[in-house]
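Entry:
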Amino acid sequence: MDNKKLATYLEAFVTEKRRNLFDKVLSNRTKHFTVVLEDLFEKYNISAILRSCDIFGIQDVHIIENRYQSYVSSHVAKGSQKWVDIYNYNELEHNTQLCIDKLRNQGYQIIATTPHSESDYLEDFDITKKSAFVFGVEKAGVSDLIMRQADGFLKIPMVGFTESLNVSVASALILNSTTNKLRNSDIDWQLKAKDKELIKLEWMKKSIKSIDLIIERYKKQI
């Protein structure tokens, strides 16, 4: 099935205002940065991070499930899970390596978010390279495997008595800072035209009632 022709057909079922909104949001989406959630178990945190990814224009989120199964709270996520692409790693006993290998093959450097003493401060982070920001399980943080294989470490400067931030807060601060720098840079950070077409098609499908019936009707016409 030709995706371009299907998209043209489905546009009749989506208002012009909605289509323009899709285009506007897509113009600010990026795959230059991606987010990895390693074994988070609090659905509030997972949902809040997905919401931040949508807000700050991160299209891809990778969720590693070694010990805990991830859940999304629709109340917290506010529907953001519909607009980002989520990749789950849960078929093996230990899924972290699988995720790392996939991201490296896609050209990403692995950046562990940790208050590690050798970590770079957020304001000094080099945004020029494709980066996967890894956020680890509540309290314990990223795994030893991530720490051993990370290409870099990133921390948020803190001057209070408390030594750590909630993972969802930390992710929001990091994504706000890095994506803001990205959009004000000369880096080619935007989605490729083909990616935009495919994502917009999926968004239209999610916005149309009785989409399965409509697509079946379309297939009969071609």
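The CA atoms of residues 68 and 184 lie 38 Å apart.
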